[in-house]
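explain this:

___
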Amino acid sequence: MEYFLQSSDYVAVSFWLVSIAMVASTTFFFYEGMFVKASWRTSMVVAGLVTLIAAIHYYYMREFWVHTGESPTVYRYIDWLLTVPLQMIEFYLILVAAGLAVSSSVFWRLLLGTMVMLLGGYSGEAGWVTPSLGFVIGMTGWVIIVFEIFRGEANVAASKNKSLKQAFDALRMIVLIGWAIYPIGYIFGFLTPMIGGSIIYEDALNIIYNLADFINKILFGLIIWNAAIKDTIRK
């Protein structure tokens, strides 16, 4: 078996592209974080940590795929277990950075939704529960997150600051639309085979997941950077 990256292996190529993009984004976020207002620096560090953690995991995921041809499920969910809560923390951090009064319960509700979402997805992919039940559990966690940022206390707090509202709206659209790519990948990978046969479509599953991470992790950080720069210029 060939253990080097092949141009015909589009899944491996997508792993490689995302890993390099994550490294470049990490460098950008850490560097730019030195020039924003002090209240935004933690948010910029967290944005950089998200892409740094993802870059490391994508290196190992690519190697796993090239060597085995199988989905790197454990690596991917370890990555998500670390990075997705950090992204949820960002909603809380940017509200604090803008000087808005928001209770710590916002953070805990977002964290709860995140853990339910990840636990459901992994349980379905690892075979702990049926793929359908895992999908339902995971979507329940996603709904908790969406409700909090669109109708909960986080949304109420963000609406009090017009300059922050634009960035907050962009971030929550990523969660609503960008994160919808993940269940699409799950459907193609695990639910579609239940209808048409027993084969799990690992190629489609991984390419869709990689595309989702590329968009959601990097763009998420860029929106925070843009908000931080604008707020810094106004000081």
